[in-house]
Specification:
- By secondary structure, the chain is α+β, with helices and mostly antiparallel strands.
- It folds into two domains: 54 residues; 61 residues, no CATH class.
- The relative contact order is 0.12.
- It holds the Pfam family DDE_Tnp_IS240.
Length: 138
């Protein structure tokens, strides 16, 4: 469990700030303004320290409570733009259509596909069956 004993702000404030920072990808300075609008005077450096200190433990707890996945995966890749640059998106989906994992890569080759598959297996369990398209990289 995350320890908030030495924190000068309530647990709810810290969790809200970390959640907004991680979930929506806003800058700590913008989040500082959001907190001011809610009547809390929190410095952006403090928010950054909260993210560094609490985000890994929150992520670990969320990962441990993750629902069981189906044992049949579908792997695919597509070409998307990220910040105006074309990038390959690898993703794994279970038989129910829930996204299990994804990875962005600059190149589409065997190394990228292998790295993604290792990442997906490490973040989830080893699947019984994998269905994929017939691309050369896979």
């Amino acid at each position: 469990m995350t320890n908030f004993k030495s924190a000068q702000y309530p647990k709810d404030v810290i969790l809200y700030a970390v959640f907004v920072y991680v979930r929506y990808g806003v800058s700590s300075r913008y989040l500082e303004e959001i907190m001011k609008e809610r009547g809390l005077n929190v410095d952006h450096a403090t928010i950054n320290r909260w993210v560094i200190r609490y985000a890994p433990t929150i992520a670990e707890k969320a990962h441990s409570q993750k629902q069981k996945i189906k044992r049949s995966w579908r792997l695919d890749e597509t070409y998307v733009t990220v910040r105006g640059k074309w990038t390959y998106l690898y993703r794994a989906v279970d038989s129910q259509g829930d996204t299990l994992d994804f990875m962005l890569s600059e190149c589409r080759d065997e190394d990228a596909a292998s790295a993604f598959l290792k990442q997906a297996i490490n973040n989830n369990a080893f699947p019984d069956k994998i269905v994929m398209d017939t691309s050369g990289a896979n």
